[in-house]
Amino acid sequence: MEAAPLIATQALDGNRYALARLISLIEDDGADARAALAALYPRTGQAHVVGVTGAPGTGKSTLVNELAKALRSQDVTVGIVAVDPSSPFTGGALLGDRVRMRDLAGDPGVFIRSMASRGSLGGLARATNDAVKALDAAGFGVVLVETVGAGQAEVDIARTAHTTIVIEAPGLGDEVQALKAGLMEIADVLVVNKADRPGAANTARALEMVINRNSTHGEEGKDTWRPPILQTVALDGSGVPQVLEAIAAHRAHLRASGLWAKREQMRVETELFNVLRQELLDRALARVGEGEIRAWVKRIAAREVDVYAAVQSILDAD
Amino acid sequence: MSKRLRILIAKPGLDGHDRGAKVIARALRDAGMEVIYTGLRQTPEMIVESALQEDVDGVGLSILSGAHMTLVPRVLEELRQAGLAHVKVFVGGIIPDEDVQALQELGVMGIFGPGASTEVVADFVRQQLTEG
Hints:
The complex is a heterodimer of chains A (318) and B (132).
Chain A: H1 4-12, H2 16-28, H3 31-40, E1 48-54, H4 60-73, E2 78-84, E3 93-95, E4 110-116, H5 121-137, E5 142-148, H6 152-159, E6 163-168, H7 174-181, E7 189-192, H8 200-213, E8 229-231, H9 240-257, H10 259-288, H11 290-301, H12 307-316
Parallel strand pairs in A: 1-5, 1-6, 2-4, 2-5, 6-7, 7-8
Helix pairs in contact in A: 1-2, 1-3, 2-3, 2-5, 4-9, 5-6, 5-10
Chain B: E1 6-10, H1 19-30, E2 34-37, H2 44-54, E3 58-63, H3 68-81, E4 88-93, H4 97-106, E5 110-112, H5 118-130
Parallel strand pairs in B: 1-2, 1-3, 3-4, 4-5
């Protein structure tokens, strides 16, 4: 069943293994994946894509598990993409999000895929985007994308969602963390998880202050949405219905205000630039060859030539 | 670029001791593999469904409860039924000698006892899974 268009067809018909194979093709990014993606693209654009991000240890996976359970009780099917970092040294990765998503096992209305960030930043955004497309086209009503909010790549992924949930937890030095990562700016819904712990109210207050100070929110695109700050204890599910309501309210807001289409446009634009950038880079590298690139690196490091002159020569080479 | 190996590490059965499973998961990660760790008390059905969704090349089962002769055949059978007969299975834990051969005959690719070095396990897994 390795013919890519066939895999795409089977995945769209509800064959779960074909869907899994399709996501593997996407991760390996070959011609096969492109053919399959072209076949399924017309079927995308239906799912509500929700990004869930936050610092390590805030309880993202547990909240995703609870959200998925709550969505299932409303008969909404759920696709989950859980992204964890690859080791930059070995390329290996330990993907443990399933440990907290045990409750979802055996439900055919749920599909969970763990993804390692692998090599390049651009690559991760592309692979995640395309995996979301696969789940979207396969008919999942909501696609939850979980990333560690600890770097630009992760923030970028969260940004491509229709609705982005940023999770904080008391006692993590959270206010500073959030400001540093630039996460507050992309949050549509803010969740203070582990709200049964001391300091939760303080964390919520700190977030409130940041939001009040954060005048950029709402300026661009005349978005009048004000991110609600919700408290949850994901471990026992309390507060989760309110998060679900906030997600639905945000979706309704995007639809009513015309921002849904705008976000789609933004997302497609980012994607177009990412793919174009990568494609141009690949072409340039293919033309010049690894050996010559190494030679340029040596010459630049030896101060024989500067990086801009080198790039000009590489691009002009024929 | 060669395909990156994806391995599911699971703990079927009811014993609540997952240290060995975590050690192996880390060792395989350090050997450059993508390891999906599923945690404790997985049923064979849960393990196979995870293996399917994650499209793994291999499944490692950690079993200390002594129930390997019931659990392993069930995982192998479920894999076959799910169309995942190509996914190779290895087992770690306390497996008596007389069961080792029986499991190998069922199609288990490797069995590792408590003393096995993590490097040996990682090398073995890589070799078995890249030989095709």
